[in-house]
Write a structure and sequence with these properties.
The structure holds 2 protein chains of 2 kinds. Chain A is globular, with a radius of gyration of 27 Å. Chain A folds into 5 domains: 3-99, Glutaredoxin (3-Layer(aba) Sandwich); 126-336, Rossmann fold (3-Layer(aba) Sandwich); 346-429, Ubiquitin-like (UB roll) (Roll), CATH 3.10.20.600; 434-522, Up-down Bundle (de novo design (two linked rop proteins)), CATH 1.20.1440.230; 536-591, Alpha-Beta Plaits (2-Layer Sandwich). In chain A, 41% of the residues lie in helices and 16% in strands. Chain A contains 24 helices and 17 strands. The longest helix of chain A is centred in the last third of the chain and has 19 residues, at 504-522. Chain B is an alpha+beta fold. Among the domains of chain B are: 2-75, Ubiquitin-like (UB roll) (Roll), CATH 3.10.20.740; 208-271, Single Sheet (N-terminal domain of TfIIb); 287-345, no CATH class. Chain B contains 8 helices and 16 strands. In chain B, the strands form 6 sheets. Chain B has a 5-stranded mixed beta sheet with strand order 2-1-5-3-4, covered by helices on one side. In chain B, β3 and β4 (59-60) form a beta hairpin. The relative contact order of chain B is 0.08. The chains are: A alpha/beta, B alpha+beta. Chain A binds chain B through residues 276, 278, 293, 295, 297-298, 300, 446-455, 457-462, 465, 482, 485-486, 489, 492-495, 500, and chain B through 41-46, 49, 57-60, 63-65, 78, 81-82, 85-86, 89-90, 92-93, 122-123, 125-126, 147-148, 150, 166-167, 169-174.
């Protein structure tokens, strides 16, 4: 008996960027050159798989021999030959290159529902999905469930919208079902736009059929025969894999007329978004599909009443839909087992910032921030001190380190002045300036405002200008109060979710880090040492050896001094780039 | 019918009425910049926010339908604070040159600034700056004064069916303009000018001729066609400087390019003020009695000498249907010929 050898190579956007394609080719050529099928195996296969989350370690490669899995990290094409020779042929694992305990720790506290098959299935092969119970939920729905029963199941599971607002999915479906009309639509919102967020992209790249299956079930539940996936054109790989998946689903009869002999017709079109953040807002998204300028309109009427082309429409986020097949397969109670009383199931987060293990994680709702940062994230980079966690991207807020034990769920984060949002999670340490963080997010939201309503169009602009002058050292007494009042008015007065949440980063940083704002305004000092205009670099004479390194790297020629004599920085010329600070081996340069 | 309560007052309105419309019917003022009852609700200026009992946040009264049993508060501390902030924000991105602005005295933004007594502004910063460049003879666009209420865009598409302009760019840079920022090249009906709440859109022919306080308003009927649109002439120093139309007229305030902008002939020295009779190869001024007598005697003479069919009548599209009817009747019954035609056929 030959052995069964399976090689899985991470080929999400992260994997590809790290050279996944070259690694895959190296395996294919290496195995061919060794005539591996004849030598060791009757069945050796190489699969591309989607992102498994730990993008920092790409390219990740699983070598599975007779079910025994070894995971290699940081693999480059030139390392492949040795893996083939030593491990696949010789049976000797290349220990130096395998993942260590921290890789396990990264996964230990995660619970994977949405991402369960990402990194396992080949996203371009429907059979790979089917072999892992794919489309089983759909068959179950057609076999034994009425639309009402589907909706009841989703309601009972407690699934809430994963796009950010957390509206109960079953209730949304029920609205759309009850609204009269023979033409209805279901739209999958894949216009993921938060900076640093890549949850939805990874799901579509890694397991597109789970989203398609969820959509078909949703369409059946509300009585829609047409669906759209509104996806950003900036996600070319996701678009490509989605197209392949849709075509394969059509060929197998999961899409089209009379699906699986049920008499139910449904098909899905892809609509590419042109990269406007506001088009993630459902009414703007609908306008965009209709070929209009992507601008939101006031609600009511809600899309479930009057949506696309004026017809009842349900819009669900990618992750929400990807949960649906698992809920139908395993039952509402199984899903409701995860999470807290009001926030059920799991949530995918893009963990970034100053943690050791950055990547895509899926955790049960109710997990603490501490577990995410220290157990999954492996703690703060360089052992520095945690300062805050930013959740919910530009619509969210900052949670300070002292609240690190709060539970991550819709209600708890909202109480803290933040949101779960679509799943961005940025970890910040003592080297992050909170005023600057607020400014960063406002730069984004003010540029992405559609410009329709006054509070958002001019209000976010003025907020950004006030923040900019504070970080530039031109802050004035009263600016903090002005920021707070303007933020509150923008939140209460804006038309859509963009403006209603854009001030959150400002309000939450002022709430928890007011002292940093005050230091900027009154003392013209940036405590984290980030805001350039408020920095001065000076040379501590007793530490300076006169090695001249600093003078040589200074791009402005601001450092003067004789060789072997203490140097001096001419403040008028210094551009505060920090090159000297990073170069000095004697810690003779003081920043502050 | 739905009965709702606005500021403690019970009001009965038909299904589909918005809160704003209901309040107006009850004589309750709600400020707004982007609302026009003749256009689709837009909800952009956010000035008409009201608090509806049971709703978590203020809602725009221009877009929210009045429902039975609804309790509405059109003003409270938070709402007034937001309204004031909105006006301040608008003024922080506005030339604020009311002293020389054509629209002064007829400007909603100016009114709001007055209403909220905004002598100072808490907000300042970058202001949009654009070069004015339209070469057309009718519409002056000063987009620095634009508040993005979207009325011009909506009237152009919804009423005129032209869609010559739309909003381009995002956020603070958002701007109403023709495609690719080319010069305005449309029908120049001027509907956009008529709905603009600020001085962003002005009729070029009126520039520098006098503002609201300087004018006498004369209601009349447009002479250009049989539609008979009601127009209001704005007269300053015995000169027609502008034509507008009120929303409560049969034409709902809408006019075409001729009615709105074709008024300069009134002041032309070449304009005919009396009938002219050609005598000895020259036109001479005559009275109406003289002229009509001349026409009647000649018609009689020609008919007697050459027969009725030697006479033909050509009527005008500037006459009403009734006048055109009478004209053909006159030709057939009085003159006795079917030789009657109308300029619209050519």
């Amino acid at each position: 008996m030959g052995r069964e050898v399976e090689i899985k190579i991470c080929m999400g956007t992260g994997g590809l960027a790290a050279g996944g394609r070259a690694v895959m080719n190296a395996f294919a050529e290496g195995l061919k050159a060794e005539g591996i099928d004849a030598k060791v195996s009757e069945n050796c296969s190489i699969h591309q798989v989607g992102c498994r989350g730990f993008c920092a370690r790409d390219v990740l490669v699983d070598v599975i021999i007779d079910g025994k899995r070894t995971t290699y990290q940081y693999i480059k094409p030139e390392m492949v030959e040795q893996i083939i020779k030593n491990h696949i042929i010789g049976g000797e694992v290349v220990q130096d290159w395998t993942v260590k305990e921290d890789y396990q720790a990264f996964h230990d506290k995660q619970v994977k529902v949405v991402l369960a098959d990402c990194g396992e299935v080949d996203p371009e092969d429907i059979d790979s999905y089917i072999s892992r119970r794919g489309y089983e939920a759909l068959q179950k729905v057609f076999r034994e469930m009425t639309p009402e029963k589907v909706i009841n199941t989703i309601e009972a599971s407690g699934l809430r919208g994963r796009g950010g607002a957390g509206f109960p999915t079953g209730v949304k479906w029920d609205f759309a079902r009850r609204n009269p009309g023979d033409v209805k639509y279901i739209i999958c919102n894949a216009d993921e736009g938060d900076p640093g967020a890549f949850m939805d992209r990874s799901v579509i790249e890694g397991n597109p059929h789970s989203v398609i299956e969820g959509m078909i079930i949703g369409a059946y539940a509300i009585g829609a025969h047409h669906g759209y996936v509104y996806i950003r054109a900036e996600y070319p790989l996701a678009v490509e894999r989605l197209k392949i998946a849709l075509e394969q689903a059509r060929q197998r009869g999961f899409l089209g007329r009379d699906i699986l002999g049920s008499g139910f017709d449904f098909d899905i079109k892809i609509k590419l978004g042109a990269g406007a953040f506001v088009c993630g807002e459902e009414t703007a998204l609908i306008a965009s599909i209709e070929g209009k300028r992507g601008m939101p309109r006031p609600k009511p009427p809600f899309p479930a009443q009057k949506g696309l082309w004026g017809k009842p429409t349900v819009i669900n986020n990618v992750e929400t839909l990807a949960n649906v097949p698992a809920i139908i397969r395993n039952g509402a109670l199984w899903f409701a087992k995860f999470g807290t009383e009001k926030s059920k199931g799991t949530k995918v987060f893009a963990l970034t910032g100053k943690v050791n293990n950055t990547g895509l994680i899926e955790v049960p709702m109710g997990i603490s921030l501490r577990e995410i940062i220290y157990d999954i994230g492996g703690g703060i980079e360089g052992g520095r001190k945690l300062k805050a966690v930013q959740t919910g991207g530009p619509s969210g807020g900052c949670i300070p380190a002292e609240y690190i034990d709060i539970s991550v769920d819709y209600e708890s984060l909202a109480r803290m002045g933040s949101i779960v949002g679509s799943g961005g999670m940025v970890v910040m340490d003592e080297t992050d300036c909170m005023v600057n963080i607020a400014k960063y997010f406002l730069e984004f939201t003010q540029a992405e405002s559609c410009g329709k309503c006054v509070p958002c169009r001019i209000g976010t602009k003025r907020l950004l200008e006030i923040l900019s002058r504070i970080t530039d050292g031109r802050g004035r007494p009263g600016d903090i109060d002005l920021l707070v009042t303007l933020s509150e008015d923008v939140k209460a007065g804006s038309l859509c979710g963009l403006g209603q949440t854009a001030p959150n980063p400002v309000l939450s940083t002022i709430k928890y880090f007011r002292d940093e704002y005050e230091a900027h305004i009154h003392e013209k000092r940036c405590p984290a040492g980030v805001c350039k205009n408020l920095l001065t670099y000076t040379i501590i004479e007793e530490f300076c050896k006169g090695c001249t390194m600093c003078a040589r790297v200074c791009p402005a020629g601001a450092i003067v001094g004789e060789k072997k004599q203490p140097h001096h920085i001419v403040q008028e010329i210094c551009i505060k780039c920090g090159a000297c600070f990073e170069t000095c081996k004697f810690k003779a340069i003081k920043k502050g | 019918m739905n009965t709702l309560m606005i500021d403690g007052k019970y009001i009965e309105v038909p299904e589909g009425t918005t809160i704003l419309e209901a309040a107006r019917r009850a004589g309750i003022y709600i400020p707004t910049l982007c609302d026009d009852p003749r256009l689709e609700p837009y909800g952009a200026c956010r000035l008409c926010l009201v608090q509806v009992k049971g709703m978590p946040r203020p809602v725009t009264s221009c877009t929210t339908p009045a429902t039975d049993g609804m309790e509405v508060q059109t003003s409270n501390e938070q709402i007034e604070r937001i309204r004031k902030t909105i006006v301040e924000l608008l003024l922080s991105d506005h030339p604020n040159d009311c002293m020389v602005c054509e629209k002064a005295g007829d400007c909603t933004l100016q009114e709001l600034a007055y209403f909220y007594n905004l002598r100072e502004n808490r907000f300042w910063g970058e202001r949009r700056q654009y070069t004015r460049k339209d070469a057309n003879p009718f519409i002056e666009r000063d987009m620095e004064k634009c508040v993005l209420c979207g009325k011009c865009v909506r009237v152009c598409e919804e009423v005129q069916g032209v869609a010559a302009i739309d909003i381009a760019y995002r956020g603070f840079q958002a701007k109403v303009c023709p495609p690719f920022e080319r010069d305005l090249d449309c029908e120049f009906c001027g509907q956009c000018v008529s709905v603009c709440p600020t001085g962003a859109l002005i009729g070029k022919q009126s520039l520098g001729k006098g503002r609201q306080k300087d004018i006498k308003r004369v209601d009349t009927v447009c002479p250009y066609c049989g539609c008979g649109c009601n127009i209001t002439l704005h007269v300053s120093r015995n000169e027609v400087i502008r034509v507008t139309s009120e929303p409560d007229t049969l034409n709902e305030g809408w006019l075409c390019v001729k009615g709105r902008f074709g008024f300069r002939f009134v002041n032309s020295p070449d304009r005919l003020k009396t009938p002219l009779i050609r005598r000895n190869g020259r036109f001479e001024e005559a009275t109406w009695t003289e002229a009509l007598g001349y026409i009647a005697s000649n018609l009689k003479r020609i008919k007697k000498q050459y027969g009725a069919d030697a006479i033909a009548g050509l009527s005008s599209a500037r006459c009403t249907n009734e006048e055109n009817y009478l004209f053909q009747k006159f030709m057939r019954a009085v003159i006795g010929t079917n030789n009657v035609d109308h300029c619209a056929r050519y």
